[in-house]
Design a protein that fits this description.
Number of helices: 9
Oligomer: single chain
Helix content: over 70%
Largest sheet: none
Low-confidence stretches: none
């Protein structure tokens, strides 16, 4: 369960982050605390999409190299720095997929699968698991990403919106539509 911070704590962390960013924009040595703060989260985001540790480390490394290179142009717009990093990670993932024509993988936990379909199916079976896997493959890239972030990564709609550059409300609507489409595909007779 994520730690709930008070408004004052959040404001302090935002100010601290802005100070680090400002310093790092003129002196790259100050980028290290930002790297340390966000490396694990970016790595997990990438790893869940490539499911190969070495490749995930390579892509994560590229994310931070690109972030450092683009940092002088970075402008704070009220969103966490992590949202910017996740957008770079998303771009690097897509580039990696294009470069290697790789298949996306979804790391799926059996418990999470059951939670996703438990409202549709009374007695969840292995056959249902396979049907869900097949159904997930029929979604488009954004729909799959929304479902992954919401159900498998347990992200809030606000975080999802920040990562894929949508408003929180639009992230909710698009996630709801993705789930509805998944439900329709899942319930189709094969």
């Amino acid at each position: 369960m994520p730690l709930q911070l008070s408004f004052q704590q959040q404001s302090f962390l935002q100010e601290e982050e802005k100070t680090l960013i400002t310093r790092a924009q003129t002196d790259s040595r100050y980028f290290a605390p930002l790297y340390e703060r966000y490396h694990d989260a970016i790595f997990r985001y990438v790893y869940r999409r490539v499911d190969e540790e070495e490749k995930a480390y390579d892509i994560t490394s590229n994310v931070f190299v690109k972030a450092l290179q683009a940092l002088p142009k970075y402008e704070y717009r009220g969103l966490p720095f992590s949202a910017w990093l996740f957008r770079i990670a998303k771009s690097e993932l897509y580039q990696s997929f294009r470069d290697q024509k790789a298949q996306r993988t979804v790391s799926i936990d059996k418990v999470v699968l059951q939670q996703v379909v438990e409202e549709w199916v009374e007695d969840y079976t292995e056959l249902d698991k396979q049907r869900l896997m097949n159904s997930l493959q029929k979604l488009n890239e954004q729909q799959l990403q929304l479902i992954e972030m919401r159900f498998f990564e347990k992200r809030s709609f606000k975080e999802i919106g920040q990562i894929i550059d949508l408003s929180e409300n639009n992230a909710k609507v698009k996630t709801f539509r993705a789930v509805q489409k998944l439900k329709i595909i899942f319930n189709q007779k094969e």
